[in-house]
C-alpha cells in the first residue's frame, strides 16, 4: 500500500498550485450554428453566433414530473400544430410564446404580441388549417391569366404551407374567430409569427 501512496503523494506535491487542468478552467460548450451544425468551443455559444444545442425531441417531454412546461423544437409542421393545440387547450400563453420567433422584436412589440397570444389561448380551438401560397394560372406564353388569389383554381402540385389559420370561437359564444400565424424556419425548427 505504501508503494502506491508514496508516488501519488509525490505527484500531488509536485503539482503547481493555482493551476487547474484545462477541462476545469475552460469547460467545453456544445453549440449549434444557424445552419444546424454542431460546434465545440471554450467560449459562450452567443459569442460565436450560435446557440446552446437544441433539445432532442425524442427524449424531451412537454411536461416534466414537476408539471412545469419544457419547450421543444418543432422539427415538423405536425409537431408545431401539436404544440399550438396543447398551448390553447391548456390556456397557456407562455407555451404558445415558446414557439414564437422573437428575433428582432422590440420590447413594445413583444408586449403587443403577448397580448395577442393571450387572446388566442383564451378562445376555444376548432381547427388549424394550413395556408398555402396561391398558384397563378398561366397562359401558354407564360403570362399570368389569373393570380388565383381567391384559390378558385385547384393546385395541381401541393405547395408547402406559408402559414396556419386557427379557427376558433370567441370565448363563451358561437361567434367565429380566425387568427393567422406566419411560418418561419430557423435553427432547423418551425416557428410562428404574427
Tally of individual helices: 5
Largest sheet, if any?
Answer: 4 strands, antiparallel
Q: So what's the overall shape?
A: flat
Q: How much is the radius of gyration in Å?
A: 26 Å
Output the helix-strand order.
Answer: HHEEEHHHEEEEEE
Mean of pLDDT? 75
Structure classification? alpha+beta
For the record, the CATH class of the domain at 77-149 and 158-193 is Alpha Beta
Fill in the CATH topology of the domain at 77-149 and 158-193.
Nuclear Transport Factor 2, Chain: A
Task: Give a short overview.
This protein has 194 residues and is of the alpha+beta class.
Can you give keywords for this protein?
single chain, 194 residues, alpha+beta, 5 helices, flat
What does the model show?
The protein is an alpha+beta fold and 194 residues long. The chain has a domain at 77-149 and 158-193: Roll (Nuclear Transport Factor 2, Chain: A). Helices cover 26% and strands 23% of the residues. The chain contains five helices and nine strands. It has a four-stranded antiparallel beta sheet with strand order 4-7-8-9, covered by helices on one side. Mean pLDDT is 75; it is low at 17-25 and 53-70.
